[in-house]
């Protein structure tokens, strides 16, 4: 099930990679997904993945469930925050990375916990594939 969820996220938001780029600037949010409904969020994320250069460097806030996976063929783990629609059949979200000094699992939230991340949209190419993700300084668990 986790591989299927990961595959769906990877296809809709491309793949994301690790980077030591600084995270979000405090106080300045360009795209606050916590104030968007599922349909609007899905459309905006699609735009961001289709035209990453237009959104690169923008600060994004997003809330959802935390999931991670170690995909075969990659040296690093993938971390995602996903939001589900009202029927829980569809999801949208972002891959994200904390600074490189943070280690899994001790510095990351518990799997399937609700979290909020704020980070800078980052785009890069790895192994000939486009990767888009949020470079985050931290996360917070939503109670």
**Which percent bin holds the helix content?**
10-25%
- Which series of helices and strands comes N to C? HEHHEEEEE
Mean pLDDT: 84
Total count of strands: 6
Q: Return Rg in Å.
A: 14 Å
What oligomeric assembly is this protein in?
single chain
**Total number of helices:** 3
Distance between the termini: 25 Å
Sheet having the most strands: 5 strands, mixed, barrel
Low-confidence stretches: 1-25
Order of strands across the biggest sheet? 2-3-4-6-5
User: How does the helix and strand content classify structurally?
Assistant: alpha/beta
Tell me the fraction of residues in β-strands, as a range.
35-45%
What is the global morphology? globular
Describe what this molecule looks like in 3D.
This protein has 143 residues and is α/β, with parallel strands linked by helices. It has helices at 2-13, 38-50, 52-55, and strands spanning 31-32, 59-69, 78-84, 91-97, 114-126, 129-141. Strand 3 (78-84) and strand 4 (91-97) form a beta hairpin. It is globular and about 35 Å long.
Describe the structure in brief.
By secondary structure, the chain is of the alpha/beta class. It has helices spanning 2-13, 38-50, 52-55, and strands at 31-32, 59-69, 78-84, 91-97, 114-126, 129-141.
Question: What is the secondary structure topology, with strand pairs?
Answer:
Layout: H1 2-13, E1 31-32, H2 38-50, H3 52-55, E2 59-69, E3 78-84, E4 91-97, E5 114-126, E6 129-141
Parallel strand pairs: 1-2, 4-6
Antiparallel strand pairs: 2-3, 2-5, 3-4, 5-6
